[in-house]
Amino acid sequence: MPALWIAHVHVTDAEAYGKYAKLAGPAIAKHGGSFIARGGKYVTLEGKERARHVVARFPSVEAAETCYHSPEYQEALDHARGASERDLIIVDITEE
């Protein structure tokens, strides 16, 4: 079952976060992920305000989790730590 990787991000160091983004894209693609949304216009109706929102589609929750824990993504994530405040969830797409 397909899954969505949904990140809400407040960037505190644009240069370091740019290094993260450059490495994260290929890591996500390697695990079957493709971006649906990256930044762009948004409206916050509830919850904490974050200026950047990213949604990627993966073949499954397991593929998204494997990507997150992969050496390639962890290398990218090293640049985001300390350069951003992030919330990240993975949710399966249930089709009714």
UniProtKB/TrEMBL annotation:
Record-linked InterPro entries: Dimeric_a/b-barrel, DUF1330
Domain of life where this protein originates: Bacteria
Protein name: DUF1330 domain-containing protein
Leader peptide range in chain numbering: none
Organism: Puniceibacterium antarcticum
SUPFAM superfamilies reported in the protein's UniProt record: Dimeric alpha+beta barrel
Domain DUF1330: 2-92
Pfam family, one: DUF1330
